[in-house]
Records
---
Amino acid sequence: MTTVGFVGLGNMGGPMAANLAKAGFTVKVFDLVPALIAGVEGASGAGSARDAATGVDVFVSMLPAGRHVESLYIGADGVADVLGKETLVIDCSTIDPGTARKVAGALADRGITMLDAPVSGGTAGAQNGTLTFIVGGSQAGLDRGRPLFEAMGANIYHAGDSGSGQIAKVCNNMLLAICMAGTAEALALGVRNGLDPAKLSEIMQKSSGGNWCLNVYNPWPGVQDGVASSRGYSGGFLTDLMTKDLGLALETAVSSASSIPMGSLARNLFQTHALANGAGRLDFSSIQWLYAPDLKG
Amino acid sequence: MTTVGFVGLGNMGGPMAANLAKAGFTVKVFDLVPALIAGVEGASGAGSARDAATGVDVFVSMLPAGRHVESLYIGADGVADVLGKETLVIDCSTIDPGTARKVAGALADRGITMLDAPVSGGTAGAQNGTLTFIVGGSQAGLDRGRPLFEAMGANIYHAGDSGSGQIAKVCNNMLLAICMAGTAEALALGVRNGLDPAKLSEIMQKSSGGNWCLNVYNPWPGVQDGVASSRGYSGGFLTDLMTKDLGLALETAVSSASSIPMGSLARNLFQTHALANGAGRLDFSSIQWLYAPDLKG
Amino acid sequence: MTTVGFVGLGNMGGPMAANLAKAGFTVKVFDLVPALIAGVEGASGAGSARDAATGVDVFVSMLPAGRHVESLYIGADGVADVLGKETLVIDCSTIDPGTARKVAGALADRGITMLDAPVSGGTAGAQNGTLTFIVGGSQAGLDRGRPLFEAMGANIYHAGDSGSGQIAKVCNNMLLAICMAGTAEALALGVRNGLDPAKLSEIMQKSSGGNWCLNVYNPWPGVQDGVASSRGYSGGFLTDLMTKDLGLALETAVSSASSIPMGSLARNLFQTHALANGAGRLDFSSIQWLYAPDLKG
Amino acid sequence: MTTVGFVGLGNMGGPMAANLAKAGFTVKVFDLVPALIAGVEGASGAGSARDAATGVDVFVSMLPAGRHVESLYIGADGVADVLGKETLVIDCSTIDPGTARKVAGALADRGITMLDAPVSGGTAGAQNGTLTFIVGGSQAGLDRGRPLFEAMGANIYHAGDSGSGQIAKVCNNMLLAICMAGTAEALALGVRNGLDPAKLSEIMQKSSGGNWCLNVYNPWPGVQDGVASSRGYSGGFLTDLMTKDLGLALETAVSSASSIPMGSLARNLFQTHALANGAGRLDFSSIQWLYAPDLKG
């Protein structure tokens, strides 16, 4: 029977740990906020991160940013010292690829296998166990982790070696942001020139402008049912989170001397939108407002 | 039996007129280049545009730019004076919406129905009769024109009233350019950070970054068979033509006081690519070179 | 004694014509709005544009856009037919270079010399006779027009042959917009990171970031006295006018296959600002709000 | 008599340390490259960074990036442990403001005063003692350091408290990059439309487009004598260094949730230029090539 240590029990990590417990894993959880520890059904609480990392078959973390991950593993009193060589480490945080590679390298020096496995699918995916994992690290590591990924998610992709999961997620979300801003822009241009947004959407979906945003996450209110734009942009994938992911894209481009003009512009449009429209806590498809302020009402 | 006058017999117009003749229409064609007139199989030649426009049920034009369309219809010696009130006019040129509306309005003043019906699908689509038409104008006009559209194409969309066909095409192609530049950018960012372009493409296709370019027109050489990137970017949709369409998007945004930051940047990236890489006559997916100069070889 | 016909008597043209009269020229004025004709002190009214253009030594126009200029000179009932071959024509409108060259070419075909002479300096400059003229056309033409330019303005630059005045103005104002947006952006970045805007302005003025906007037209409220930012962005050079000039830059870039990524982005930022902040009738330095929404109050 | 420890003896640091010695300071220098230690005229060599930091009145560092500065001061075996409380610390490196504040804070916890004092002026300024220092930290600290700044430079600006020197430099250089790209863009637009670059430059200098780049560092070859563009863009401020500084601007914007669309675009244009034109080691005004590829020859 597999034992799992899990650190980081926020909106994402909490339900993920609970899903592991529900699937039959023996789960020991920890978070700096004590109330969160008690909230994970089916799991036992640990007294510290080091406690959660001691003597487990798999250790999973879900934290906000690279500095937290670095600190958890290789900071002062980091868990690296207590992790067993046979423990598989899975970091599900979305962080900069540089830190992911640095921490994985430090663990590898101690003989420990680490996977970076950022997720997409949001809090609903975490609760329903339908997350998508984009995994970086060895194939053997991924094979060992597969039962856990399957307990927490629905899709598992192997992007390449260590850090590749983070890079693939950064690339995907940058492209997503570009397509969303572009879709909102094209719709507003059409509407300002007299077109019906639903008709224009339908034409472009069937033509070469088709993309995930236009097709299943349309940003213009009233065009599609059940999407964020049709409920006042509440819930969904927050503008602030998209802006954070685009910040990772910028850092990745800077560190690799890559040119990302479209992604950079998208990042600044989402940031401008968050500032000018106070939209940080709305779904990122609310970028439509920046092009069509009348919608803001 | 329907008689058709057709003016503008270039790489697109010639095969389109021939397909009308093949479908049984009686076609009278004209072009300023005499050799092109003789080249349309099954059609008879006219001595002038006015000759081609006289006494026909439907009059079709396929010209390079708005100034040609304006001149053909309402310039000195324009065909407006010889078109019958019962003649249906179909302009298949891709031009600025402002000119489309101006010409349609001038014809409407004389009681003549005009459709703007720009196409996509390229020269192959013109030859094979598989073009897509995006039509602006009245529903009644579209219904009358349908037999001709079906003889020349495979898909027919009704975008709205006069000028809407041009606007919808401008919006679609702007979004296409944004997605293509964004896809090339995301792939280059991944590859520069060690990812395999095929694996990254596969992951993003299945995720929220999916779009027409990534899915069926991948710009990175070797990822997909049968696309322009896998044959040195020859053929396809030329960078110069995409740049022209993006110029129409800019003009449409200027005239309607619309904000199109992503589309404007895409236009300038394609223009920079054309200038810096001499890529005007290559497929527009060669924008990949701007992000990954090593591919240029 | 020199006689002058003057058409276009708005906020700019009216005071310019009055300054010509004050300087001793015999001025005959016309505008489509009768009340404006009566308002030009020292000038006599004409019954039509053709009347104003008949029998004068110099003919001056000051109109909103290229289509008005084209119509005035070479449209139906245009003044081209009544202008004498010895009449010097000066168009002071800010229009697209293409139209400027087209009209000048049409007049040249009739043996008439035309200058394009767009101005900067705003309504205050028009009233005080301190405008700057950027002139395109022959040196001989500029020499003949110099007494009029000196009566209306303080600076006269010769940019080159026909159309060059418009091009130089387009280039200058595009660069101005880029510097203004850049200055606002740098100031906001500094302030968000704890710097004092006045201190930061002073340092950059003395360093390599120095530019006209930063030095004499600072967009951050309170840094400089007597500028638009220190009076709530009232008056000055309206965002809508800057956006219009940037539209001319886009059209000039499209027609000449030029790449202008920075100018295009600036155009879209000013357009976004006009839409999102309702700032079209405020001075263009109010773009500062787009970067620092707290200033909007 | 003031004793100085100096670490980091590259193209900038070496001449700076020598100028301190020439001005009469007793200077003890260290670099990881032994040959550089011997090359500083008038200084004595130290055996390690800690040796250089021990027992001195002032300690100066000049390093490539934030990670080096962090390591030097507060890494394992960092100099923080050997610096006296009375030692004034001056870091002249150009690094991210976040690291500058972190290190200054760590030293402040030990009672040590630190200034961040990034420079501009290049290697020529370092050799000739004409650098510009933009200083962050206390006024008292700056007063104590003034004799050293005056021995190494010609201009000293106080930007604000700790980290402000880095921020002000980041802002200035971002604005410089925007103005340079904008100037190159405006000149190319004019030239492509028939204008003379020298005449256009002169007009814009006297108008509202005036800026440091246009006025004294003109990017178009042949317009000004003695600038990089007139010697094949050799020497000067390298594209790679400008790109690095723009990377700091992006990181600063990401960490402060600031919107910098123009600066981000400039960063990507310089990066694209470096990649596509192999121009990393040319002066940054060579960005002119990106707009006018014919100049590349």
Note: DSSP finds 13 helices and nine strands in chain A.
---
Amino acid sequence: MNKKPLILVTNDDGINAPGIRNLIETMNEIGEVVVVAPDSPQSAMGHAITINSTLHCTEIKVNDGTHLEYSCSGTPADCVKLAVNEILQRKPDLCVSGINHGSNSSINVIYSGTMSAALEAGIEGIQAIGFSLLDYRWSADFSAIKNYVKKITLSALVNKIPSNVVLNVNFPKLKVNQINGIKICRQAKAYWVEEFDKRTNPMGLDYYWLTGKFINEDKGEDTDEWALANGYISIVPVKFDLTAHHVIQNLNTWDFEN
Amino acid sequence: MNKKPLILVTNDDGINAPGIRNLIETMNEIGEVVVVAPDSPQSAMGHAITINSTLHCTEIKVNDGTHLEYSCSGTPADCVKLAVNEILQRKPDLCVSGINHGSNSSINVIYSGTMSAALEAGIEGIQAIGFSLLDYRWSADFSAIKNYVKKITLSALVNKIPSNVVLNVNFPKLKVNQINGIKICRQAKAYWVEEFDKRTNPMGLDYYWLTGKFINEDKGEDTDEWALANGYISIVPVKFDLTAHHVIQNLNTWDFEN
């Protein structure tokens, strides 16, 4: 019998979020699980890391299971760095992040703490998957997607995720019999139009809340947004070489001496 | 005579950093300048945005010049969003971020607050450039690169940066006569090996400082690391479509039902 895979579990909603509790439960069915996750919500933290203040990390036990759990004061990327360098005895076979309460499809990948953890693992040469459910509520129902999370994880372990790539998996908010299957997609070309809610505090000082509207003008049927809107689970392979190789030739024609 | 371009200036080291003061001075020679920058250092913030707390923004005047300046409580990405939506009367012609005190070459682009501001502008359809000098010190000397910052900016305004791409410009720490010129590059495949400095606080609780060593195993002579090590200024075109298009075909062969 093969040795069980070592799976690092993290997220950005914090170690007590229902999303990560569901993910731990599923991962316990697959491998040896170690959880290193933020002690408080870190949503929209992007790929932040903690370099100017200290990090704390405490072993805890939130609920039953064979896994180990550590609560960390840092960002999702910090959690992965700490886990790999200070907590785990060997390099994990897989890092899974989530299940995020809310979408990380399309351009949201760039703001996402969930995906920053997966990317940090990828940069360190560890296979990684970020899981997100299109339901922002704390009471989100993860039962419909449990089997898909397991299938996708097992498939990644068997097929191996290509190197320098991590998977961004988003689930539509649907009942299990309404889900049409899994689609491999590209990131839709979409963006947020901000709407700042300007208010005045009791001392007369103006302040803002950031809100916004998501605009998807990408009509492609190969995008994550199309898949999710049509009842599919989207999987986008994501890379961290951000070079726009296709424009290098153009830039080489620029004359900087003009 | 053409209307002067409207240039938004921001950074991640904070509005009082010498790097942004130098950038403002140069941009005042080129266009109409509005500064919206963080009120305190935001290094390594990645692409964080502020969604769970309030943002403050105050008009200030740090030093002389025709530009307007606003100090903002948020992250670099917040500053761009606030500028575009609440402060500027029209869409800027260009957003410049920096000059960062320290490198944003190679994988550092992903942790960089400087580049997150440029990327945020790019996402919003604004031409954008991030500038960084390979000198972490507050006392870094920006005089050797002043003319290059101006040349690159003017060249971008004339040639137009390709859409959905922003420029990541890094300057070697050299005297002006030691700089060999400008190279268009790809992001080197490099990474950090973390070294956590574990300590115990006066209450007996363990804590960590994140430190690390930068490892570049990429031998290519077309990378930003090669250019910088050989006395060149590196320009990497950076995109925010993170899709790893080249592996989609491979992923489509996976059987999720096994």
Note: Helices of chain B lie at 18-28, 76-87, 113-123, 146-159, 224-229, 248-251.
